[in-house]
Each structure stands twice: as structure tokens, then as C-alpha cells.
Amino acid sequence: MPLITWNDTLSVKITKFDEEHKELVKMINNLHDTVTYAQGFEVVSRTLKELVNYTQTHFKHEEEFLQKCNYSELEAHKEEHRKFVAKITMLWCAITLSSNDVDRGFVEQIFDFQRKYSRELNSSAAYLQDLLGSWLVNHVRKADMKYGAALHGKQP
Ligand SMILES: [Fe+2]
Predict the structure, then answer these.
(1) What does the alpha-carbon distance between residue 37 and residue 111 come to, in Å, rounded to a whole number?
(2) CA Rg, the chain, in Å?
(3) Distance (Å) from CA 51 to ligand 1 centroid
(4) What is the CATH number of the domain that holds 42?
(5) Best exposed site among 11, 17, 42, 144 by fewest CB in 10 Å?
(6) Separation of CA 84 and ligand 1 centre (Å)
């Protein structure tokens, strides 16, 4: 089952960004699957790296558009983006280090967690769900909707 399902309640009414958000949802769901089905460090690492790269591209597009429109909350919005990129980059580093056996690592902890608590939590992706799923949905619903409303009718 996908972690996030895109629907109209997530629309910022700017086609380009709705499309990019859908792509992010797809990538987060892929990543969720790689962890849920324990596809191994390398697959998780590669999938997460793709997400990091695409997230940076998408944020750049949004920020360029907001700047062009002289959006008053640009700096606060950029700060949210920056913090999220820092988090997922650290997550990627932790997973990649694990894949090289530098330490036992983060993904194994997630898998252990799944083995111990799967009944209560339903999947190992509880952490990812919290970090990725709720972050994206909350960010789109709050910060992105705000620019959507303020810049209604403008297109990048
Ligand atoms: Fe944003």
C-alpha cells in the first residue's frame, strides 16, 4: 500500500508544482517499498539518493518562481526546504555508510525495529513515514498552499 496518495486536497493550483509534487509522492512511495520489503542497503541508498536529487531540483524550481513573484515569505519557505534537504541527506549518508559496513547502521536498526514492533506499527517505515510522508504532506498543505493562494493565476 502506498505511503501517500496524492489527491486534490494537495493541489497548490499551479500545474507545474502539482506535477512535481506527484513525482515526489511517487518517489517517497518507492522508497517506502524498498524499506518495507527489505530490499537491501544498496537499493535503499540508490532510491533515497534519487529522492534527494529530485527534491533539490523541485525546491529550486519553487524558489525561483517565488523569487520571481517577490513572494513575501520566500526566506521562511527556503528555510523549510533547507532543513528538509539536510535531513534526507543525513539519512542517505547513514544508509550509505551502513551499506559499506562502516557501522551496523541505520537501516538495520529500522529492520530490527520492524521485526520487534511490526504488529504495533504495521511497518518498518514508521520513521520514514514520519520524516518523509508527513513532512511532504504538511509542507504542501501549509507552506505550499500559502504561495498557491497568494500567487493564484501565475504560472512558472
Ligand atoms: Fe515548498
Answers:
(1) 10
(2) 17
(3) 15
(4) 1.20.120.50
(5) 42
(6) 10
**Cα of 59 from ligand 1 centre, angstroms:** 6
The total number of structural domains in the chain stands at: 1
Q: How far is the CA of 103 from the centre of ligand 1 (A)?
A: 34
Q: Which domain holds residue 123?
A: 14-150
Ligand 1 centre distance from Cα of residue 111 (Å): 31
The rounded Å distance from CA 30 to ligand 1 centre is 21
Distance separating alpha carbons of residues 36 and 93, to the nearest angstrom: 19
Helix segments in 1-73, DSSP class H: 15-36, 41-68
* Span 23-36, pLDDT tens digits: 999 999 998 888 77
- pLDDT at residue 143 in the model: 95
Per-residue pLDDT tens over the stretch 107-135: 666 666 555 544 443 444 456 666 777 88
